[in-house]
Every structure is written in structure tokens, then in C-alpha cells.
Amino acid sequence: MDDDIPADETYNPWTIVNAVFRELADAGLHPVLGAAGDPSEAAAALLVALGIRPSTHGDVRPLQDAKNELAELRQAMFGDS
Predict the structure, then answer these.
(1) Does residue 1 belong to any structural domain of this protein?
(2) Following DSSP, what letter does each residue of 29-47 receive, concatenated?
(3) What is the total count of domains within the chain?
(4) Residue 24: CB partners within 8 Å, gap ≥ 6?
(5) What is residue 39's predicted lDDT score, i.e. its pLDDT?
């Protein structure tokens, strides 16, 4: 491995979104993301535009949705136990 080549870095996608929004706000602009609800799609589009591949790693919403669906299936199959 060449010491001059940096290792792959990872970033929390929301850190990138926050940095972009701070820059826009500092420039006197008023960025809005997800004003109509969940901002994840708009945030993902912003990251893609910046050449960053967004990931749901660290986003607990898909996990919580899966848990809720499993609870509903258990209820339907086994009742109140």
C-alpha cells in the first residue's frame, strides 16, 4: 500500500448534508430539505449529486419498519401472546 494514497474514508451522510446546508446558509441562502415530510429522499439526491453514494447504514427507520411489520405478522398469526 502506498502511504501517499489515503485510505477510503467514510462519512455519515447527514454530516455531509449539514455541511452543505451550513455553507448555503452562510452565503445568505435559505436551504429547505424535506419541508413536506421525510427528508431522506431529498438528502439522498443531494449526496448523489455530490458524487457520494448514500447508504441506510445508521438509519434506524428501515429497521424499525421491519420490526413493526414483524409485530403485525406475529399478531395476525398468533394473537395477543
Answers:
(1) no
(2) ----S-TTS--HHHHHHHH
(3) 1
(4) 30, 31
(5) 73
Q: Give dist(CA 29, CA 66) in Å, integer.
A: 38
- Domain range enclosing 36: 13-78
Taking alpha carbons only, the member of 64, 43, 38 closest to residue 55 is 43
Amino acid at 43: A
Let me know if residue 7 belongs to a domain: no
Using CA atoms in the order 63, 35, 44, 49, what is the torsion angle rounded to 10 degrees? 180
DSSP E strands, the chain: none
Residue 4 lies in a domain: no
Q: Is 69 part of a structural domain of the chain?
A: yes
Question: Does the pTM of the predicted model rise above 0.70?
Answer: no
Indicate the burial class of 30 (C-beta count within 10 angstroms; 0-12, 13-18, 19 or more). exposed
Q: How confident is the model over 42-69, as pLDDT tens digits?
A: 777 877 888 877 766 666 677 778 888 9
